[in-house]
Every structure is written in structure tokens, then in C-alpha cells.
Amino acid sequence: MTENKTCLLCQKTIRGRSDKKFCNDYCRNYYNNKNKPPLNDFVKKTNQALLLNRKILEDLLEEKNQMKIIEEEKLDRLGFQFELITSQKLNKTGTQYNYCYEFGFFPLQGNRLLVFRK
């Protein structure tokens, strides 16, 4: 005996696997997005700023370049937020490496930074 299941969102009859809950991807995505808890506004803004920082570093490093010296002022002009990073590491000489996802940077003399990709 077959049971007619209906989509949790639009109530259309579901065809296919017996464990399906939605009739299509649109209904599944809409239902799940609607029912997930909203992110805290602070978290959203921080995530957006981190992704912007990452994009700035990615754009500055051309595909073939794994590292590049950049003026700190240039990053500042592009909207880079230096206080928002994903991790930090100290090397053996005490130099602090700052990371924004897979991109890192550390200070050089004269307000310059060495930007690199892990």
C-alpha cells in the first residue's frame, strides 16, 4: 500500500523516494531558510566584513603571485578592517602573522605589509 505524502511547504503530492519531504529544491530551500534561526546582526556584519577583507587580499594577490608587498594605506583605502582577522600566529623570531582565512600578512618597515597566500 502506498502512502501519498505531501510537500511540507506547498502541499503538492511528492513523487520519488519514500523519505522525501519536499516536492522540489525550491520548496526544500525556502522551508529550511524560513525555519532556521536568524543570525545575530553583529555576527552577520562581522562575517560580511571578514569576507570583504578576504576578497581585498585575494584581489591584491594575482593568481601567479603567492606574496606581495603592499602599503598599509592601500589596504586602508580599499576598506580593509585590520582588527578583523580569523587567526594569528607568532613565528620563532616573534613576528606576528595575521590571517584572514587562507591569506596572511605581517608588518614590514615603513608601514608596508607582506601579504601572502597559505
Write a structural description.
The chain is an alpha+beta fold. It has a domain at 41-117. It contains three helices and five strands. It has a five-stranded antiparallel sheet. Strand 4 (103-108) and strand 5 (112-117) form a beta hairpin. The protein is elongated. The termini are far apart.
Key structural traits:
single chain, about 120 residues, alpha+beta, five-stranded antiparallel beta sheet, about 30% helix, elongated
Low-confidence stretches are none
Please tell me what the overall shape is: elongated
Q: Quote the distance from N terminus to C terminus.
A: 57 Å
Q: Biggest β-sheet: count, sense, barrel?
A: 5 strands, antiparallel
Number of helices: 3
Structural class: alpha+beta
Largest beta sheet: strand ordering: 1-5-4-3-2
Helix content: 25-40%
Topology summary:
Layout: H1 25-35, H2 41-60, E1 67-71, H3 72-77, E2 87-90, E3 96-100, E4 103-108, E5 112-117
Antiparallel strand pairs: 1-5, 2-3, 3-4, 4-5
Give a quick rundown of the structure:
The chain has 118 residues and is an alpha+beta fold. 31% of the residues lie in helices and 22% in strands. It has helices spanning 25-35, 41-60, 72-77; strands at 67-71, 87-90, 96-100, 103-108, 112-117.
